[in-house]
Design a protein that fits this description.
seven-stranded mixed β-sheet, 14 helices, alpha/beta, binds pyridoxal-5'-phosphate, 40% helix, Aspartate Aminotransferase, domain 2, four-stranded mixed β-sheet
């Protein structure tokens, strides 16, 4: 096997350097554990950034991928695909009747949602109605439309001219959102728990208020559940926790346990705005990825992982709150289910993350002050205890 240094040299000489990579190369995973090139073992509390809900290499998903890879990997969306049809039916069952379009990533799902929203608006509201309101602190992806939708300036620098048709309002501020609505507005898009900006849950009154505003002004409510969806917050979809129904929502990260898939889901009346030829993708919903997604969702259902995320999330947050008594540099513990952010009062997030990594715990630092934990939903109490002990030691050293 190549050494870490050889891999680093190969990467730096040949791959575009868009990621600030940490000096680690994982080569194997099983459940909540990862191993690097040096044979060191880690407890993974990042799960590929909310991707590996079932941990690494879950036997049911591995078996489904192997079986499908030996049967049929890809045909084309010109033909019917039984795995895609079954996956659409399962998502329809879990969501209460939403229709699916299958693409390949979160950004692509959000692009599809924006396209569908614009098409619906042209048909139902008029040709001038082409503006989408998104919120500050959001993250919706790296394509031109989704980085424009994203409410963070840092992702936009250097990429002008940006697409038109987007406007931002502050997050969790209903009055400001209402003030931003114009005759051109066709919808509002946001995350129920902002992930990339450091785990910021929406206020329930805000979410219900936005739904009411959308109803009053005939706007589409579009929810980006790429990171917070599929069990992570303790429900299949975060909107179920907030007691609202979106018109369109998007899924991606964990749906196929690490194989690329993004999904646009819409109420049937809204989905009908997409007509023949309006949207498409060569790889979207291909047999192999759909087989992995079916195995992932069926396993999540059989093992009741959304409920488990709620239970283990509560346990983990309680343990972190107890740690706050001992370490006053913990300013806040927040989140829903197993989507958890720890905000520090001092800019030590990166050094604490590095110290934990050295002691075998993987998570990430958002900016200078926020620690973000997104463990696999199969995590046990003993593993939470182990993670808290490593964090405790790192905070003590800081
Ligand atoms: C909420 C949200 N939307 C969209 C995206 C983009 O997803 P992808 O990287 O699969 O394009 C992300 C990725 O972090 C995300 O967290």
């Amino acid at each position: 096997m190549a050494t870490l240094q050889e891999i680093q040299e190969l990467d730096q000489a040949n791959v575009m350097q868009t990621y600030g990579r940490l000096p680690i190369c994982f080569v194997r995973g099983e459940g909540t554990r990862l191993w690097d090139t040096e044979g060191r073992e880690y407890l993974d509390f990042l799960a590929g950034i909310a991707v590996c809900n079932l941990g690494h290499c879950h036997p049911r998903v591995t078996a489904a991928i192997r079986e499908q890879a030996g049967t049929l990997v890809h045909t084309s969306n010109l033909y019917y695909n039984q795995t895609q049809a079954r996956l659409g039916a399962l998502l329809g069952e879990l969501s209460g009747g939403y229709r699916s379009f299958f693409g390949n990533s979160g950004a692509e799902a959000n692009e599809g949602a924006i396209k569908l929203g614009r098409k619906w608006a042209k048909q139902h509201r008029g040709p001038e109605c082409d503006e989408l309101i998104t919120v500050l602190g959001s993250f919706h992806g790296r394509t031109l439309a989704t980085l424009t939708a994203t409410g963070q300036e840092k992702v936009k620098h250097g990429f002008a001219p940006l697409p038109v048709g987007f406007r931002h309002a502050p997050f969790n501020d209903l009055a400001a959102l209402e003030a931003a609505i114009t005759d051109k507005t066709f919808g509002v898009m946001f995350e129920l728990v902002q992930g990339e900006s450091g785990v910021h849950p929406a206020d329930p009154e805000y979410v219900q208020g936005v739904r009411a505003l959308c109803d009053r002004h005939q706007l589409l409510l579009i929810l980006d559940e790429v990171q917070c969806g599929l069990g992570r917050t303790g429900a299949w979809f975060a909107w179920q926790r907030y007691g609202v129904q979106p018109d369109i929502f998007t899924l991606a990260k964990p749906i196929a346990s690490g194989l690329p898939m993004g999904v646009v889901l819409a109420r049937p009346e809204v989905a009908a705005a997409f007509q023949l030829g309006d949207h498409g993708s060569t790889f979207g919903g291909t047999h192999l990825v759909c087989a992995a997604a079916l195995a992932t969702l069926e396993t999540m259902r059989d093992e009741r992982l959304p409920e488990r995320a709620e239970e283990m999330g509560r346990y983990f947050r309680d343990r972190l709150l107890a740690l706050r008594e001992k370490h006053p540099q913990i300013a806040e513990v927040r989140g829903l289910g197993l989507m958890i952010g720890v905000e520090l009062s001092v800019p030590e997030a990166k050094s604490i993350m590095h110290r934990c990594l050295e002691n075998g715990l993987v998570f990430n630092a958002v900016g200078d002050k926020i620690l973000r934990f997104l463990p696999p939903l199969i995590v046990t109490r003993a593993e939470v205890d182990q993670a808290v002990a490593i964090l405790d030691a790192a905070l003590g050293d800081a």
